[in-house]
Design goal:
mainly beta; globular
């Protein structure tokens, strides 16, 4: 009597109670032998009569994979995988949004992509992303290597905010999430060159050097170095002058200019199994201070492997304003009498079918849950 079903959480399962349960400040109604609890607690009243706010944060997604199936074909070498990231619709009026694609990793079945993706996330709102892994094929159609759907809250709740999913075609896809820093720390303009690097190619050839910038992550499982930038290789040159690089400072060190990073130099191999030519640790501040005349010495197993000169290192476009965290107010805040009701949203699988990314099989996502009735 006087009780109206109200949707408080679009994705929360119905709550049931026995008819004999003694609950203060509640009224119960029995229907066909099953009791549905209709609560009028202070918390429930506030949820419909007071403004409802959800915290919106900007998250950063990075990807890697291991043990992928080679789909290049017999006698055609190893697959060249890249990934496409799509933010799926999670509310009424929303549409799937392609966040972008990673770079292509040549001849690798265990790629570590350096491309990161930024997107807004409302905590408490079920949100899915689809990641499709594809083999780039020149002069022909690209070949799908597998896909997976991740729920953002599920990834954030995993150890180290890393979630792994097996792909049907073989291999494992890893998604890592972290909160983006509260301010834009700018871009690092970097120009490096090598001098008298040690040849690791062999007696009759010269190495083809490239370098990577690597970082660590906070929390469990984040202590190992992960690449966030990779230069192009220069063939047969032990005194390489690499192309100017532009690196997002937040992606490199979370805006902490004194955070330790690693610079690793490799000899490029067409097989994808690159040989180390030495590494050294530094910080963004140290690179900036070395700009123009500073040098670093990469080491491999305790041996010096040549010299790296910093021809340029400067930060451009850094912001001072803190604009990462905002509050999103629902319509209930504007009018307390508005009662939120469940609105149908296309299932994740249906959204994937509409997207039609290549000929990739549609991943199966968890079904949407029923609303809570009080």
């Amino acid at each position: 009597k006087g009780c109206v079903p109200v949707s408080l959480d679009y994705y929360t399962l119905p709550r049931k109670r026995h008819d004999t349960e003694d609950v203060n400040n509640t009224r119960e109604r029995s229907s066909r032998g099953r009791g549905y609890l209709y609560e009028e607690s202070l918390i429930r009243i506030q949820s419909t009569k007071q403004s409802s706010t959800m915290t919106k944060e900007k998250l950063q997604l990075s990807l890697s994979a291991g043990g992928l199936k080679n789909v290049a074909g017999l006698g055609k070498g190893t697959s060249d995988p890249f990934a496409i990231v799509t933010l799926l619709a999670s509310g009424p009026g929303e549409k799937p949004k392609v966040l972008g694609r990673t770079e292509v990793i040549k001849n690798s079945l265990s790629p570590k992509w350096t491309t990161a993706f930024l997107f807004d996330y409302e905590f408490g709102k079920e949100t899915h992303i689809n990641i499709s892994v594809i083999d780039e094929v020149r002069k022909r159609s690209d070949k799908p290597m597998g896909s997976a759907v991740f729920e953002i809250g599920d990834v954030l709740g995993s150890r180290g905010s890393i979630k792994a999913k097996k792909l049907k075609k073989g291999g494992t896809l890893y998604a890592r999430l972290q909160k983006a820093p509260p301010r834009n720390a700018g871009k690092l303009a970097l120009r490096l060159r090598g001098a008298k690097l040690k040849n690791v190619e062999g007696m009759f050839k010269k190495s083809d050097p490239f370098f990577e910038l690597l970082r660590t992550y906070d929390g469990q499982g984040g202590g190992s170095y992960t690449p966030v930038f990779r230069s192009k290789h220069i063939k047969n040159n032990l005194n390489p002058k690499w192309e100017p690089a532009t690196v997002d400072v937040n992606a490199l060190c979370d805006g902490d200019l004194d955070r330790r990073i690693q610079v690793a130099v490799y000899d490029h191999e067409s097989s994808g199994k690159h040989d180390s030519m030495g590494t050294f640790e530094t910080t963004v501040n140290e690179l900036v201070k070395a700009s123009g005349s500073g040098t670093f010495t990469p080491n491999k197993k305790g041996k010096a492997m040549g010299t790296i000169h910093v021809d340029q290192a400067q930060i451009n476009g850094a912001d001072a304003a803190d604009s990462a965290t905002t509050n999103v107010t629902t319509s209930a805040a504007a009018d307390p009498s508005v009662v939120p009701m469940p609105v149908a949203v296309a299932p994740v699988a249906a959204q994937m079918a509409d997207m039609n990314i290549g000929s990739m099989p549609v991943p199966v996502a968890p079904p949407q849950r029923s609303p809570t009735f009080v």
